[in-house]
Amino acid sequence: MDDVWSIDAWSSLRFHLSDSMNGSKVLMTTRNKEIAAQANPHEVVGHTESLFYELRLMDDGESWELFLKKTFGVTNFTLVSLSEPMEELGKKIVGKCKGLPLAIVVLAGLLSTKEKTQASWEKVLASVDWHLNQGGPESCLGILALSYNDLPYYLKSCFLYCGIFPEDSEIWASKLIHLWIAEGFIQRRGKETLEDIGEDYLNELIHRSMVQVAEKKVNGSVRSCRIHDLLRDLAISEARDARLFEVQENIDFTSPRSIRRLSIHQHLLKNNISQHLHNSHLRSLIFFTNPIERKDWRSIQEHVKLLGVLDLGRMEDNYTLPKGIGELIHLKFLCIKGGNRVKLPSSIDRLTNLQNLDLYFNDSYIPHTIWKLQQLRHLNCSYGEISSPSKFSKCMINGHLGVEQLTNLQTLALSAGSWLDGDGLRKLAQLRKLEIRGWLTPYLRKGFFDSIAELTALRTLVLSDSKDYKKKTLLNRVGLEWQKSVVEERTSIPGLMSFSRHSFLYKVFLYGKLDKLPEQTEFYPPNLLRLRLGRCKLKDDPMLILRNLPTLRILELTGKSYVGNRMVCPFGGFVQLESLVLNDLDELEELIVEEGALPNLRSLQVWFCHNMKKLPHGLLQLKRLEKFSLRTNHKDLIDEILQIEGEEWDRIRLITSINKRDKVLVF
Fold first, then answer.
1. pTM for this model (two decimals)
2. Do residues 142 and 132 touch, judged by C-beta distance below 8 A?
C-alpha cells in the first residue's frame, strides 16, 4: 500500500487478511510516522514494538551517484568522466538538494537537456540559489519550480494539465494526449499527427523526470503514467496563478472566480456546482466522480456554450445523454465511463467539432448520424451499437452516410452492424486501432477483409465474434489461410491475402472459431509482439506453428482457444517470448517445455485448466522465469509444488502464487 494517509485505510484492509503464520508480509509506505507506528505493532517481551523502516536522506556519495546516472542516462555511474571544475560544480548543485532524491532526480532531468559545459552548469547553479532564496522552507519546491520554469513553452501547459488528475492516480497516456489535443496544447509539426507529437511531449516530460512511467506497452510506448505528489502540488499552484484550471479541492465556493477549466474529484454539495455552471468562461469540465444531475444540464446549455472538453466520469446506472448536448457545438472531447447502458440523442450530430467520443465498454446506443462528425479522430465505443437509418431519414440525408465519411479516424471500436456493409472501412487510411465485437458472421465477406488488407497503418486489431459458426471461420476470412472451403462457398478471396504489409501491427486479438492456424510465418504481421486467441477451438497444437514467430513477446491462449489435451513448446521455439498465458483450456492435461524452448520467458500464467493435474514438464529449465501464477483446485498439483525438494524447486516456490477458490498462497 503506497502513500497511506489514514490508519483507517490500513485497518479496513487488514480485516480481510487472515493470519496464516506463513511469513507473508504487507509493505506499506506513509509520510506519517504515527501511522507507521500503529499499523503493525509487534509484540516483544514486555512491550510493543513497531516494525517500520524510516527512510533517511541520501548521503553525499549516494546523491552524487544518483545525479550522474540521471544526468547522463547511464546505469553505471563510474563510466562518467568529468573535469575537475565540472565535478566541483556538479557537487555544488547536488549539495543544494540536501539528500532529497526527488529534488536530485528533477534537477538532473533538467541538466540532461543542457549542454555539458561549465557555463551551462554555472547558470543552473545560480538559478538554484535564486529559487531556494525565494522558496524559504519549501526548498524542494524551489528546485522543482526551477525545472518547471526551464521547460520549453510548449511543454508548460502540458505539464500543468497533469495536475487535474486526482492525487496518486494512474493516468492513461492516450487519454492525457487526447485531452492535450482537445485543449489546443499540441502544436502542429510538419506532416506528423497530433497524437505522435503528443507522445513526444509526454516522453520529453518523462525524460526530464517531471512525469513518471507507470506502465509500458509491449512495444515500449507509455501505457500509463503518474505525477509525484509534490510536482502535482506545483502544477496546481502554477495553474491557479496562470488561471489555467482549478481542482475542486482548492476552490473557495463562497467566492467563485471566472474559472476556465474545472476538475471535480469529490462528491459536491448540490449548490456547489451550480454556480460554476453559470460561468460563461468555462471551457473544460472534468468529473472523477459521479457526474452532474440532469437538472444542471439546462445551466450548461444556457450559460456554458463554449465548453470544449466534457468528461462525465463514471456512471453507476443507465444514462441517457440529454438532447441539450447538441447545443455544445464547440465540444471536442466527450467521455463517459462505466459498464451500463448509455444512450446518445440524435442531436449528437450537431457536434461537428467533436474529435474524441469515448464511451469505453458501456453498452451504448449511438445514432447513425454519428457519421456526420467528420472531425472525429477517436470513436472508442467497444460495445456501441450504431442505429440503422430509417427509410424516412435516408430521404432526408443528401448522399450516402457511412463510416467512410470519417477519414480522420485513428481509433474505431464498435459493435458489428450494418455499418460494415460495403467497402467504407477501407477508406480509413489513418486508422491505427480497429476493434469490432459482436455477431460478425453476417459481415464475413470479401469486401470486409479486402478493407482490412488495405488498413496498413493499423497498430492494434481486435475481432471478436460472439457466436460460433461452421464454415465461415474467422481467420480463414481475415486472410491468414486460403482454404478449399472458401472456393466451395464461391466466395472469391484474393490469393494469399495476408498481414505481410501490416508492418506497424504489433497487437492482434482474435476471438472466434477457426479450423487451423496458417503455417507460413509470412501470413502474420512481420512485427507482431502480442497475440491473443479465444474461443477458436483449435484441434491441433498451436505451439508447433506459433513457435516460429520471430518477434512474439506475449502469447495468450484463452477461453477454449485450444481443445487438445497436450501442448508442447518445442526445442528452439519462442526465442523472444516473455509472457505465456493459458486460461480456461478445459481439455488441457499436459504442458511440455522442451529443452531450449522459451529461453526468455519471465511470466507463466495457468488459470482454470481444470484437467491439468501436474506441473508443466520442463519448468525448471526456465531460468529467467520471474513469476508463475496458478489458479487450480487440484490438491495433487498444489502438493507437488509444496513438497517437491531441491534447490531449483525452492527458486520456483519463491516466484509462485496459487489461487485456490478464495485462498491465495504466495511463497
1. 0.81
2. yes
